[in-house]
Specification:
single chain, about 25% helix, Alpha-Beta Plaits, globular, about 100 residues, four-stranded antiparallel β-sheet, 2 helices, 4 strands, alpha+beta
């Protein structure tokens, strides 16, 4: 398990219930099972202006995750976020040692 930072930008026009459902899916994707062990922390930045339009959106809902993830799962996580229509951009970065 290694420490990673995962930044996700979600579509800004989602209703609260839909946004919470997407966030719950992302939580389960990053760290399946129990989250009480401190393996996942989420910092919600809220809706922010994008530097340039992405998929015709001018703003996005930002979430910064810090998680302990098995490196062999990174490609599966990226693939799942790529095919999620509500995620307009993501970035997975391994934290420095």
């Amino acid at each position: 398990m290694r420490d990673y930072e995962v930044t996700v930008v979600i579509q800004p026009q989602l209703e609260d219930a839909e946004r919470n459902q997407v966030i719950e899916q992302l939580d389960n994707l990053l760290v399946p099972g129990s989250k009480e062990d401190g393996a996942l922390t989420a910092n919600h930045w809220g809706v922010r202006q994008l530097a340039y339009p992405i998929k015709k959106f001018q703003e996005g809902y930002y979430i910064l995750y810090e998680a302990k993830i098995d490196p062999s799962r990174i490609s599966d996580i990226e693939r799942s976020m790529q095919y999620n229509e509500d995620v307009i951009r993501y970035l997975v970065v391994r934290k420095g040692e």
